[in-house]
Amino acid sequence: MNPETLMLIVADLVAATILTFGLYWRRHYRRDLVVAFFGINVGVLAVSAVLAASEVGAGVGLGLFGVLSIIRLRSDELAQHEIAYYFAMLALGLLGGLGAAPVAWSLSFMGLVVLTIAIIDHPALLRGHQRQQIIIDRAIRDPHELRAYLAALLDARITAVSVTRLDLVNDSTAVDVRFRRAAAEGESREHSVDQTPVLSGAGR
């Protein structure tokens, strides 16, 4: 094993540790994905390093990337930010194992992957914007009334609403709602409600 390969392997493990424990674990605290992230990273690193030393080439490594992505994403339900971490771990493993680019490039791209996740997943970015799936104990067919009801219920400015089920028999409405808390954007509750007026009869 030449020094450049050893350097890439060490850099991958360091980057994977920072990504997993320095970022993901401190922000999301899901132990099973910590195991999955490290397992997939080290596995891809080992396989891609073997492929790089053979005549198979980088093409099969990229194919491995695609196959593992499909298998993992179909095996369990992941949140969108967890998918980003998963792909980042795959990318780190390939960058560290294949050695297809100059060492400086590979190290730079590893740093770019970690830095991008650190910034994009930072709690301060788009702070206050949230998403919830809610079942309302009323069948609300009017979209304006629905938005007003949700604004009063969540004490927030509603940015998007999607009705996933309208049950007129059992008198309920299931919605996927995206909103921003008034406090997060420096607005008072009254100002937020004024932007989305609550219609009479919106609450029970």
Can you characterise this structure?
By secondary structure, this protein is an alpha+beta fold. The protein folds into two domains: 3-120, no CATH class; 129-195. It contains seven helices and three strands. The chain has a three-stranded antiparallel beta sheet with strand order 1-3-2. β2 (156-167) and β3 form a beta hairpin. The longest helix has 26 residues, at 3-28. The protein is elongated, with a radius of gyration of 23 Å. The relative contact order is 0.12.
Quick rundown:
The protein has two domains: 118 residues, no CATH class; 67 residues. The C terminus is likely disordered. It is α+β, with helices and mostly antiparallel strands.
Q: SSE layout and pairings?
A:
Blueprint: H1 3-28, H2 31-53, H3 58-75, H4 80-98, H5 103-120, E1 129-136, H6 143-154, E2 156-167, E3 172-181, H7 189-195
Antiparallel strand pairs: 1-3, 2-3
Helix pairs in contact: 1-2, 1-4, 1-5, 2-3, 2-4, 3-4, 4-5
